[in-house]
Design goal:
By secondary structure, the chain is α+β, with helices and mostly antiparallel strands. It has one domain (24-204): endopeptidase fold (from Nostoc punctiforme). It contains eight helices and eight strands; from the N terminus they run αβαβββαβαααβαβαβ. The protein has a six-stranded antiparallel sheet, with helices on both faces. Strands 6-7 form a two-stranded antiparallel ribbon. Strand 2 and strand 3 form a beta hairpin. Helix 2 (40-49) packs across helix 7 and helix 5 crosses helix 6. The protein is globular, with a radius of gyration of 20 Å.
C-alpha cells in the first residue's frame, strides 16, 4: 500500500511537471475563430453549407486581453471569453493565415484595422447582400482581409450554389425574401472560409 502511494505521488508529480512545461496557446492578431451559433439562422446556414461552423470573427489583442471583432447585432468587439460562451457547447476552432508574420507584418495588419473601423457599428445583414450598408459575419472578415491585407480567404459563391432544399433553409428563405429570392447574390460563407487552404488550424476546443 505504501509503495502504491509513493508511485502514485511520483506519477502525479511528473504529470504536473509535464503540464507546466506545455506552453499555453498564444493567439495572434488576425486569427480567425469559428463556432456553431445556436440561433435558427445558424441551423439554416448549417444545412445550406453542409458545415457545422456558422459564425466567424477575427481575434485582436486589446491591452492585455483578447477580443473578437464580429458582426452580430452590430459590428463590434466582444471579449473572447464571452464569444466562446455564446457558441454551441462552447466549441470553437481557431485558424491562422499561413506565414502570418510575413503577410501581416508591416502595414497589412494596420490596414485591416482601418478597414474594420469603417464598418464598426454597422447593423447585421440578415439578407446577406454584398454591400457595406449592413454586414454579416463572414462578409466582415472577408472584406477586412481582402481590403486591408489583399488576402481573399474562402471562395465567393452565388446564393443559388448553396443547398436550398432543406425545409429549415426553405422556411428561412421564404421568411426573408418571400418570392423574390436573389439567387445571383454574391455570398461568402463561414464554411468556405473554414476550408480555405490559406489557413492552418491553431487550436480546437
Amino acid at each position: 500500500m505504501k509503495y502504491f502511494l509513493v508511485v502514485s505521488i511520483l506519477v502525479l508529480s511528473l504529470f504536473g511537471i509535464s503540464q507546466a512545461r506545455t506552453p499555453p496557446i498564444e493567439f495572434k492578431n488576425g486569427d480567425l475563430i469559428f463556432q456553431t451559433s445556436t440561433s435558427n439562422q445558424g441551423s439554416a446556414i448549417m444545412y445550406a453549407t453542409h458545415s457545422k461552423y456558422t459564425h466567424v470573427g477575427i481575434i485582436y489583442k486589446i491591452g492585455n486581453s483578447f477580443h473578437v471583432y464580429e458582426a452580430i447585432k452590430t459590428v463590434q468587439f466582444t471579449p473572447l471569453e464571452k464569444y466562446i460562451e455564446r457558441g454551441k457547447g462552447k466549441h470553437y476552432v481557431v485558424k491562422r493565415l499561413k506565414e502570418v508574420d510575413k503577410i501581416l507584418g508591416g502595414e497589412a495588419l494596420l490596414g485591416m484595422k482601418k478597414v474594420g473601423e469603417t464598418l464598426k457599428g454597422k447593423n447585421y445583414d440578415y439578407y446577406f447582400r454584398w454591400s457595406d450598408d449592413r454586414i454579416y459575419c463572414s462578409e466582415l472578415v472577408w472584406k477586412i482581409y481582402q481590403r486591408g491585407a489583399g488576402v481573399e480567404i474562402g471562395k465567393l459563391q452565388r446564393l443559388k450554389e448553396f443547398d436550398l432544399d432543406h425545409p429549415i433553409v426553405k422556411n428561412k428563405i421564404k421568411e426573408r425574401y418571400g418570392e423574390n429570392v436573389p439567387l445571383d447574390e454574391l455570398v461568402i460563407s463561414p464554411a468556405s472560409m473554414f476550408i480555405s487552404d490559406k489557413l492552418i488550424k491553431v487550436v480546437e476546443n
